[in-house]
Amino acid sequence: MMLSVSAKRRARDFSLQSLMYLAVLLVSAVFVWLLADFVQGGMAHLSWAFLTESPRDAGRAGGIASILVSTLLILLIALAAAVPLAWATAILLAEFVPIDSRFGSAVRFSLYVLAGVPSIVFGLFGNAFFSIYLGLGFSILSGGLTLACMLLPILTSTAEAGMRTVPDTYRLSAAALGMTRTAALIHLIFPAAAPALAAGLLIGIGRALAETAALLFTSGYVDRMPGSLLDSGRALALHIFDLSMNVPGGDMPAYAAALVLVSLLLGINSLAMTFAHGLQRRRILT
After folding, report:
1. Which one, of 135, 128, 130, lies nearest residue 81 by Cα?
2. pLDDT tens digit sequence for 148-195
3. Which among 98, 139, 192, 265 is least buried, having the fewest CB atoms inside 10 angstroms?
4. What pTM was computed for the model?
5. Cα-based torsion angle of the residue sequence 214, 216, 217, 220 in order, rounded to the nearest 10 degrees
6. What does the alpha-carbon distance between residue 257 and residue 208 come to, in Å, rounded to a whole number?
7. Sign (positive/negative) of CA torsion 171, 173, 174, 178?
8. Fold of 48-285
């Protein structure tokens, strides 16, 4: 009887383990399939000139230099506006507000609602508030600030969750040693929560780089090189959408631009994970 029960448990564990490996293989297969499709469709069109020249003939000729500049500027503005506010809110919720308080629950509920708002709604809000009310027009600044509003719930929730996973013994030990809460945050809590902070940044950067609808109403559609943050600029994802949907003969440049976008995401992910691993390693050694 005991052998029968033990055999059933082993069979169940094996089945669950097989299902998990199958899920991992399916996810990896989808990614490899997409990457192979991008490589096959866009590698022939990809060159140094494609990365350093501005688009010509509605994107059929030339490259994506101005598109890359606009995309990076929009991303930098979004992160510069969203990260300090999001992490400050996460510190408040995780370190100073009890988890069962009404204020904390209201803030978290607001973040959950914001995270579920469609990007087109953020685009309409950004157009009405940043572009029209503040007079920024269709500009890189409007697009970046709109993306910052979209990134706030993601960055705040992941940062708070990461800081709450840090054991309370860290805080108690820091207090026993006479460390201030600021010093404990900088030297203990943040390094321990580095993987969660990096994960939040990766998710936020991925969403910002892939965004189209919100930027269509805020940063605009112009594909020339921006001269300032108040100039209109076309993001890379929006450029891919335009080439594939509105430009006859734009499939090859669209594939090449998509390959560049995926490569950027892979590079940013690798750098962020390396940075988070370095922080954790330094914390362990010290």
Report:
1. 130
2. 999 999 899 989 988 888 888 888 888 888 888 888 888 888 888 888
3. 98
4. 0.84
5. 130
6. 16
7. positive
8. MetI-like fold (1.10.3720)
